[in-house]
Structures are given as structure tokens and as C-alpha cells.
């Protein structure tokens, strides 16, 4: 409704990443430069981290769009918590290798597929692992081993790890020193500044046909930055609702009051969702529950064994006792 009323070709603040609306902020331009530099080395790892909604996926979409005409084979895996064998299975499927069997068979299939790709087309092969912050150490080690496989003097595979800030803490572990030594470029996506938030909003709207109607108050855009923290996805969510509210009121100017009211409504909506959701179960709670469940099962089995033994003793006594005794 908002984009038709204001004359936009399409919604300017969709939540889905859209490479056509890529905004070259300072941090995103530097992150993209780090990606390109790392990939130009044709080996090792490239790491990009950022908060949820900071624009990591948009960077990858832009990279894939640019490389689609340059020849590299890019495979993508999205994962959060996947054990080593399951991760290898996902990698195998991404490179059209057999995904059956144990770890040894999976590794053989992946390496064979990588070598086949080089032999048939001589194309570079890049694996992008998104949401990598919760990968177990064993899974990261499998990726390191794959990145070590070479054909002649060249690595068969280069790996890009994308994840939330926790990924940096994981990679800092002492037992991942060998992987860290293979990281050729790393960058953390920070939030947009207040000035860049202004430019980001105007860029998104101009990209879909905005010519100044509706207008934005400067203070309104200041509030957008304040409420979103400069995180692009949060900016999109807030601005989409502001445009909707403005459309419903036929507003020619989007004011600070409108942004403030809309931000409060969003917080209330999220508050209702959080209040209705069950409380999260911590890892410690899950472990305690599991231990209690196991103990309960043990007690039930013990009681069952004792009951069966008592019944057997009663039966045996009945067979041994004299008729007079049984009476």
C-alpha cells in the first residue's frame, strides 16, 4: 500500500537482502574490499563478522552477482550448529558430490569433485559458510583440512566464513591456532553512523523512484538512527512501518513524532511476542532436565526389576511350600 500511494516502483525497505539496493557505506565498502583482497589470494580463509542485520548477506549477494560473470564456482552453506560429518555432507551436496557414507567417503567425494571442477573448467572454487558463529571446533577443523588440499601448487578450495561477533571469539580459541594462521583477511561490519543512516534511507528510496515525496524531517532521520542503532535491517523494519503510517495518514512529510510513535508501536509489538513466548531454556537447564530424566528412567527400571523379582519369589514359594503351609 505504501509504495503504491507514494509512487514507488516497489517497497524500498524490504527485509530480504537485495543487491540492487546495496548501499556503499564506509564499513560495507571496506568489508567488500577485504573480501575481494582475500579471495584474490586464492587460498585460505576470509572472515567477515557483524551483528544480526548488519548486511553480511547483502555483501555475499553482491559478491555472487559480480563473480557470476567471472567464472569461479561458488557454493554456499548456511548453518549454525552442525557437527563435522553433517557439515561435510552439506559441503558435498553444495559441490554436487555424493552425500552418503561416513566421513572418509564424504571427504573422498568432496576432494574428487573439487579436482574434477579444476580439471574440467579450471575454475576457482569458493565455499561460503554463512551463520558460522556456532560451528563446533571439529567442524571448523574439517574446513581447515579441506582448505589444505592442493592440486599442484594451487589450493582446490577457498573458504569464506560469515557470522555474528561470536565467530571472532570462537576463532580466538587456542586450539584453532592453525586455522587462524590461514585467515588472509578479516573484517567486522560495524553499524552505520548517523550521517550514513540518513544517506542509507534516502538511497533506498531513490533506488525505487523516490523524488522527494514524502519528505523526511532531519530530526525524523536522526530518530531512525537512534532507534535502529544504525543496523540496516532494523532501519528497514522501522522505515517500512513509518512509510505505512505516513501512507495511512496521507502525510507529505515524515516527522520525528511519526517515527517516535511508530518505534514505540514496534517495541510494544515485540514486547507482546516476547511475553507470549515461553521462557528460553538455558544449556544448564537442558542438562539438568536430561540428567533428571535419565535418573527417573533408572529408578523406574529399578522398581520394575524389584517388582518382577518379588513376583518370582512369590511364585517360587508357592511351588515349594507344602499344601498345609499354603493354606
Automatic annotation (TrEMBL):
Name this polypeptide is given: ATPase
Pfam families: AAA_22 (PF13401)
InterPro entries, per database record: AAA+_ATPase, AAA_22, ExeA_AAA_ATPase_DNA-bind, P-loop_NTPase
Signal peptide: none
Molecular function (Gene Ontology), one example: ATP hydrolysis activity
Top-rank taxon: Bacteria
SMART domains with a match to the protein in the record: AAA
Residues covered by the AAA+ ATPase domain: 42-206
Organism: Vineibacter terrae
Amino acid at each position: 500500500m505504501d509504495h503504491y500511494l507514494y509512487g514507488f516502483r516497489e517497497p524500498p525497505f524490504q527485509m530480504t537482502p537485495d543487491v540492487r539496493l546495496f548501499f556503499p557505506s564506509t564499513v560495507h565498502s571496506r568489508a567488500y574490499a577485504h573480501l575481494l583482497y582475500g579471495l584474490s589470494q586464492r587460498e585460505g580463509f576470509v572472515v567477515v563478522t557483524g551483528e544480526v542485520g548488519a548486511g553480511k548477506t547483502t555483501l555475499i549477494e553482491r559478491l555472487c552477482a559480480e563473480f557470476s560473470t567471472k567464472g569461479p564456482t561458488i557454493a554456499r552453506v548456511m548453518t549454525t550448529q552442525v557437527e563435522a560429518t553433517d557439515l561435510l555432507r552439506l559441503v558435498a551436496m553444495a559441490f554436487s558430490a555424493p552425500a552418503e557414507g561416513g566421513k572418509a567417503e564424504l571427504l573422498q567425494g568432496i576432494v574428487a569433485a573439487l579436482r574434477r571442477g579444476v580439471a574440467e573448467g579450471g575454475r576457482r572454487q569458493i565455499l561460503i559458510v554463512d551463520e558460522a558463529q556456532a560451528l563446533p571446533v571439529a567442524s571448523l577443523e574439517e574446513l581447515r583440512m579441506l582448505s589444505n588440499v592442493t592440486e599442484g601448487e594451487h589450493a582446490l578450495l577457498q573458504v569464506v566464513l560469515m557470522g555474528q561477533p561470536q565467530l571472532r571469539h570462537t576463532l580466538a580459541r587456542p586450539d584453532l591456532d592453525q586455522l587462524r594462521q590461514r585467515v588472509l583477511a578479516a573484517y567486522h561490519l560495524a553499524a552505520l553512523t548517523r550521517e550514513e543512516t540518513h544517506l542509507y534511507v534516502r538511497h533506498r528510496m531513490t533506488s525505487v523512484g523516490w523524488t522527494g515525496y514524502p519528505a523526511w524531517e532531519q530530526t525524523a532521520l536522526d530518530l531512525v538512527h537512534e532507534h535502529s542503532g544504525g543496523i540496516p535491517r532494523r532501519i528497514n523494519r522501522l522505515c517500512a512501518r513509518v512509510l505505512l503510517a505516513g501512507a495511512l495518514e496521507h502525510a507529505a512529510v515524515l516527522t520525528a513524532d511519526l517515527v517516535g510513535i511508530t518505534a514505540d508501536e514496534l517495541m510494544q509489538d515485540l514486547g507482546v511476542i516476547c511475553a507470549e513466548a515461553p521462557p528460553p531454556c538455558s544449556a544448564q537447564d537442558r542438562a539438568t532436565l536430561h540428567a533428571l530424566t535419565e535418573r527417573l528412567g533408572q529408578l523406574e527400571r529399578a522398581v520394575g526389576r524389584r517388582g518382577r523379582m518379588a513376583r518370582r519369589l512369590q511364585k517360587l514359594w508357592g511351588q515349594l511350600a507344602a499344601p498345609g503351609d499354603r493354606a
